[in-house]
Hints:
This protein has helices at 2-19, 43-55, 64-79, 146-163, 196-203, 247-252, 254-266, 285-288, 317-333; strands spanning 83-91, 100-109, 117-123, 171-177, 214-219, 243-245, 272-276, 293-298. The protein is globular. The chain has a six-stranded mixed β-sheet with strand order 1-2-4-3-5-8, with helices on both faces. By secondary structure, it is α/β, with parallel strands linked by helices. It has two domains: 1-30; 39-333, Aminopeptidase, CATH 3.40.630. Residues 123, 148-149, 180-181, 219-220 line the site of zinc ion.
Amino acid sequence: MRTMRLLAILTFCTALAASCGTGGTQTTPGPDPPPVVRPTFDQTRAFADLVAQVDFGARTPGSRAHDECKAFLIGRLTTAGARVVTHDFSSTTPLGDGEYDFTNILGVFSEGKGDGVLLLAAHWDSRAKATRDPEPARRIDPVPGANDGASGVSVLLEMARAFTEAAPPRTTIICFFDAEDQGVSGSGLPQSGWAIGSRELAANWPEALPWPDEMILLDLIGGDNVHNAAVGTPTWSNDVFDLPMEPHSLQNAPDLVDRVWTIAERRGHTAFQRRTGTAVSDDHIAFQERGVAAIDIIDFVPPEWDTTHDTPENCDAGSLYQVGDTLLEFVYAE
Ligand SMILES: [Zn+2]
């Protein structure tokens, strides 16, 4: 039976080849289509996108740099072929006076494809005041936000570009949160006023978007391993780029943490470490509270954190690569 069917197929193919004028030499069925070759992560391009954001100036609430960077991010997601959805809201912040306009920016890829919806996110605002600067006089200046803000966004922009080479196998949303980095401990607000944008978005998710079931958040993933004499080694920093497992992530989504760290280990990305790090009140919390398996990939914290020294010179393209290569492998391996 099997032989007869094969013979029939061979005969059909021979006839087809002959009728198509190919000379009849192609008499066996062709191979299966090749599997999707995943795009590579270009760390040079990602680093250029980090610098491009910092070049606007600090993306603090109400600033011109904030407006310009918003237009830049919407443009980049649009160019990458995403359906872009913006979520506007107004809020006060612990660091500012009065209300500011904020925008969460989302781009949807491979809509309706595969099983489940993956949310990849980072915050795009930068902190209005460098509250941990080593020089007290500079603590009213804004944070340039090269690592804290721009690094995570730059990795996701490079992933969006990669998605133009091969569409992700399942619905994937890239999200840039606003108003993450304006918190003050003890301010009395939910999460002390950190992560305002993600709380607003999780509570008012746009009807036009599918709800995610998994979320990977990137924050502070661009640091270097060079000791910076200007900031020294503060007691709250270990002065190296490393990515231990964040405790809220481990508690909420241990399987997702394991899948990501296993890929990182297989790819030789040694910054990912299988030890428990410091719990962080970040943009993943509001989504965890609503049932999403959500994790935070974060180097908590570099010595330049919340200082005016959070600049591209203190970042490393190789750190962006460790995270970006891991995430691209994750997206296409699933
Ligand atoms: Zn941050």
